[in-house]
Structure formats: C-alpha cells, structure tokens
Specification:
about 280 residues, mainly alpha, Nucleotide Exchange Factor Grpe, Chain A, domain 2, disordered C terminus
C-alpha cells in the first residue's frame, strides 16, 4: 500500500468517526429538548389554574351577605315550589282516582236501583197476574157451579109443575081427612123443594096482576078486560124461574087488553121503590 492510500483511508476513518460522534450527540440532545417543552407547558398551565381559582375566590369575596341571603331564599323557594308541584300532582292523581271510584260506585248504585225497580215491577205484575188468575178461577168455578145448578133445576122444574098441578087439583075435590093430610104432606115437600131452590138462588116468576114483561114472560093468549090497565098479566099458566138474574124459564101468561094505558113509573128518590113497584109489593 502506498502512503497516499494510507492517508486517504485515515481521512475516511476520521470522517466516519466525526460523523458517528455527531450522530451520538444529536441523539443525546433530542430527549432533553422534548422534556424541556413539556416542562414549559406545565409551567404555563399552573399559572392559569391559579388565576382561575383566584378569580372564583375573588367573585365569592365580592358577593355581599345580602346577596347570599337572597340566593338562599331563591333556592328555598324553588325547592318549595318543586315540592308543592309534586304534591299537587299527587293530589290531582288521588282526586282523579277518587272520582273514578265514585263514578263506578254511582254506576253500580244505578244498576242496583234499576234491578230493584225491575224486580218490583215484575213482582207487581206477578201479583196482579196471580190475583187475576185467582179471580178468574173463582169466577169459572162459580160459573161451573151455576151451570150445574141450572141444569139440575131445569130438569126438576117439570116435576115441580106436576106437583103443583096435583096439589091444586086435589084442593078442588072433596077429600077425606086421611087424603087431605096426604095432600098437605105433598104440599110440605113442595115447599121444601122451593126452599132448596131459593137457597141456590132460584126464584119463581109469578107475575099475576103485574105489567107484562116480554123479557121474563111469554104471552100465550090475550083477554079483554077494561077494568085493568092494558098489557097486564091476567093469568099465569106456568110459573117461570130465574137464577142469579138469569131467566131459566119464562112464565107462560095471558095478557089483558082494552083497558087504559099504564102510566109511566114515577122516578122515586134514591133508596125508595117506584110507585108501581110499591103497589105490586102491597098486592
């Protein structure tokens, strides 16, 4: 190797050593620079925080005692207002619940009253139906009894007629005492039979001397008689019978004519019979 090459290599080695030294110096310097920046920032923030604390303390220091009292009063009023609003809302809710319960109770009461009214009406209808049924049944039983009695009486009327004719005929004969007593016995039986008829509401129609009534009498002949009013019953050939106001059999009669017209009956005061009725009863 020549001397020139040796110097060149030496220079290159020296340059490399310088470069390496420079790099190591740059690396060593970098870390201290960053730490210095952060430290500077912290130093800058510390005065700002101290300034804010000092500002708050200053503001508190500047508030007077009166302002502090007013602030406390406002805070108390706000708390009381909030509490009142809460209690008012609760009271409104409770009131709404009570009103709902009252409405439900009123509806239940009205429903119960309606049911009670319907039950009372139904009971009244049932009672009326029962009374009508009882009355109708009683009337039907009475009507059936009357029909049965009418049927029996109508069947016995010819027998009664025959007994009456036999008695009337026997009275016209000259009879011995024994036979007369027999006729009296038959007459007594006839009277008892009429009593039974009367007990059942059967009445004889014997209108001799009364005004002719076509509703209860049947005219089988006319007789001229100027001494009596016109249309007067002269003779009764066969008695009639009525029961409970119903004519079972009309009386067979003869009627007069040629006499004066019968005057109209005078209207009598209430409770007193008419003039012709009183005259008929006296006869």
């Amino acid at each position: 190797m020549s001397a020139e090459q040796a110097r060149t290599e030496a220079d290159a080695g020296a340059a490399a050593g310088i470069a390496a030294s420079a790099d190591s110096e740059e690396k060593d310097v970098k870390i201290p620079v960053e730490d210095a920046v952060e430290t500077a920032d912290e130093k800058d923030d510390a005065p700002q925080a101290a300034d804010a604390t000092d500002s708050i303390d200053a503001e508190e220091a500047t508030m007077t005692e009166e302002e502090m009292v007013e602030a406390a009063i406002r805070a108390g009023e706000q708390a009381a207002d909030d509490d009142f609003k809460l209690k008012f809302e609760q009271a409104q809710k409770e009131l709404a619940d009570v009103r709902s319960e009252l409405d439900a109770a009123a509806e239940a009461q009205k429903a119960a009253e309606d049911k009670a009214h319907e039950a009372a009406e139904r009971t009244a209808r049932l009672q009326a139906d029962w009374e009508n049924f009882r009355r109708r049944t009683a009337n039907e039983r009475l009507a059936e009894r009357e029909r049965a009695t009418e049927k029996l009486v109508c069947a016995l009327l010819p027998v009664v007629d025959d007994i009456e004719r036999a008695i009337d005929h026997a009275r016209t004969l000259d009879m011995a005492d024994d036979f007369s007593q027999f006729v009296d016995g038959v007459d007594a039986v006839h009277s008892k039979m009429l009593d039974v008829f009367a007990h059942e509401g059967v009445e004889p129609i014997d209108p001799k001397g009364e005004a002719f009534d076509p509703l209860e009498q049947q005219a089988v002949g006319r007789v001229e008689d100027a001494s009596q009013y016109d249309e007067t019953v002269n003779d009764v050939y066969q008695k009639g019978y009525r029961m409970a106001g119903h004519v079972l059999r009309s009386a067979m009669v003869t009627v007069t004519y040629g006499g004066e017209k019968r005057p109209a009956p005078e209207e009598a005061p209430e409770g007193e019979p008419a003039a012709d009725e009183a005259t008929g009863s006296e006869e």
